[in-house]
Amino acid sequence: MTDHLNGYVNTELHHGIATIEFFHPASNSLPGNILHSLADAIDKAGQDKQATVIVLRSAGESAFCAGASFDELIAISNEDDGKKFFLGFAMVINAIRKAPKFVIGRVQGKAVGGGVGLASACDYTMATEHASVKLSELAVGIGPFVVGPAVERKMGTSSFSQLAINATEWRSADWAKQHSLYTEIYKTSAELDEAIQRLANTLSQSNPEAMAMLKKVCWKGTEHWDTLLDERAGMSGKLVISDFTKLAIEKFKKK
After folding, report:
1. Is residue 4 very low, low, confident or very high in pLDDT (cuts 50, 70, 90)?
2. CB of 143 within 8 A of CB of 236?
């Protein structure tokens, strides 16, 4: 866990349910330290024999996740550091993919960029009607390269392309449900939490071996993602140091 000023990642285990919560004061954005802590927490929960299911959530009642930290993006000065930053997203996605337990995603509010990637990587994602989505990467001169495979796997190429190309338009939670990102949507966070608790309780009493086997089946065809997401991180790392992207991010921050 890190301190509240710089954000935190916290794991609680109750009755076989490992709940991993992340927080950052800038609308639950994801700087490098949060990404690494999040990947580590998912890895540990996946290996914890007392945990049978994982719930991934963010703190607060507003944004689920604002994506990459603009402050860190602006500070990146070379291609290697750029790749290193985006590898943080790759680590989280691959941690979810490799965990031998189902990961339930709780999306209580808006998800942007990397936040859409997190929601897509979860095995079963539930949200409120306030959880609109946007892949804003192209609007700041990059592109959703690292999170793209997770989004495309969950929603299909057509829906991923719509989000990636029209990078300034919000899509509603209902749209996200219709296009398979969300499995269920609820009016309030309280209703969402009740539904997640019901599902998590059911899964916590299911056969762990059967669930691990089923998860492998569901993720078939992604075995090459360690290499793929590494390559994609390199693409983003190269673009983030360009003058175009630096200027675009500065303009975006002023909005």
Report:
1. low
2. yes
- For residue 83 the two structure tokens come to 């790749």
Spatial distance between the Cα atoms of 159 and 144, rounded to a whole number of angstroms? 13
Q: Are 80 and 237 in contact (CB under 8 A)?
A: yes
Which among 94, 68, 92, 119 is positioned nearest to 240, based on CA atoms?
68
Beta sheet of 103-107, edge-to-edge order: 8-14, 17-23, 53-58, 103-107, 124-128, 184-186
**pTM for the structure as a whole:** 0.95
CA distance to 16, 22, 91, 159, 218, per residue, from 12 (Å)? 10, 12, 21, 34, 26
Structural contact between residues 32 and 7, judged by C-beta atoms closer than 8 angstroms: no
DSSP codes joined into one string, 195-250: HHHHHHHHHHTS-HHHHHHHHHHHTTT-TTHHHHHHHHHHHHHHHTTSHHHHHHHH
Cβ count near 55 (within 10 Å):
25
pLDDT number for residue 2: 45
In a 3-state reduction of DSSP, which class is residue 12? strand
- Percent of the chain whose pLDDT exceeds 70: 98
Instruction: Assign 255 a pLDDT band (cuts: 50, 70, 90).
Output: low
Domain range summary for the chain, segments of one domain joined by +: 8-189
Class of domain 8-189: alpha beta
Packing angle, helices 157-165 and 148-155, rounded to 10: 130
